[in-house]
Amino acid sequence: MEGIRTSMKAEAKAVKKLVDTVTLENIEKADKIEQSLLQTLNGQNQRIDDYINFLNDLLKQFYCYLSPTNIEQLKLSLKSENLIIRPIPEISKPVLPVFTAGHYNKEDFAKLLGRITVSNSEPENRKIKRMGNASAQLKPIGKQRNLPPSVTKVREYTVPGVDNVYHISLGKSGTLWVSDSSGNLVKTDLQGNQLKWIQTTDIRNEGYHTVTQGRDLIYTDKSYGVICKITPVNKVTKFIKTGEWEPTTIHSSHINGDILVGMINYKEAKVTRYNKTGTEIQNIQRDDKGKELYSEPHFITENTNGDVCISEYEIDAVVVVDKSGQHRFSYTGQGSGFTPNGICTDILGHILVCDEFSNTVHLLDQDGQFLSLLLTPQQGVDDPCSVCVDDENNIWVGQRYTNIVTVYKYLQ
Length: 412
Description:
Layout: H1 2-63, H2 71-79, H3 106-113, H4 134-137, E1 152-158, E2 167-170, E3 175-179, E4 184-189, E5 194-199, E6 209-211, E7 217-221, E8 226-230, E9 236-241, E10 246-252, E11 259-265, E12 268-274, E13 280-284, E14 297-302, E15 308-312, E16 317-321, E17 327-331, E18 340-345, E19 351-355, E20 360-364, E21 370-375, E22 384-389, E23 394-399, E24 404-409
Antiparallel strand pairs: 1-24, 2-3, 3-4, 4-5, 6-7, 7-8, 8-9, 10-11, 11-12, 12-13, 14-15, 15-16, 16-17, 18-19, 19-20, 20-21, 22-23, 23-24
């Protein structure tokens, strides 16, 4: 509830900021109109003053002819071809602007600021399980509902401008963003045409970019402690400042547009949640016993139930907390070794994570139970380090030693 209240205040703050911005723009427009009107009026006043001076000069010229002895001279002067009397200057009444007040009511602002609602569905009956040793609990299981059928390779794309594919962010239909370990961040279409190239920091082997609900790409810059935004018209702006904390990995929520950022600061690490306007609303750092949850968040994603899933390269584990920040489980693999890299979730709540140690992609359910090795070297996978799922339930996989992105179908 505190998170909801914080989001409400952030929305109100954003609307107030927009009101101030629009009001300032209107005032500036009014100032410009006033300056234009004054310039017009001052010009007309100057022409009138000039004409008055002209008339005064004429009066002085003919004043000397007013004596009876000079009447004939006055008549000759008035009939002279050299006498030119300028016409009275034309002036116009300026068209004044009109302010039309806006029409709004309480209901309009209620729609603008959002609503809080409660679902009509029945409460879910859940068994509370005590979380003990995670690796001891997460054992392979037999038959599972929603277990995907066999995986089929659909297509593959060669991405120009990168040496390998460490992270993938899917943009608008027909575009994708790919980053490699050398700091190259490239936008390309599915025909292999490079649409934009950005040089970030020298070594980036994390999931440091994501596409928002508004179709903007945002990415972390560890060196300057900022999160940058690239709009659809390719304008780069600084969006969020993280201060002394270095942002390593980022994910834009498909649920509510919140932005989840993994960060490090010396020997500490945390996950910070921002709303879509960039206001900080939550920090996740320790479990209920005060123990540090993270070492160095490497890749981050959010599940359909709101769980925040972190791939932790340093401690060889996938760390999952619920949306309130409470630790749910940690997955440490199925054998003697496990080195997690890229991570994502699908519409069924599955967690997909790349394992550098075994050159495979693990498939887990949303409670951390191992379901299967979804991709293996037998299917042509070699050192997978990035994975994501598109709107058609296809898996996009990037690998360490090639700039090829391979797409597989695994859900019908």
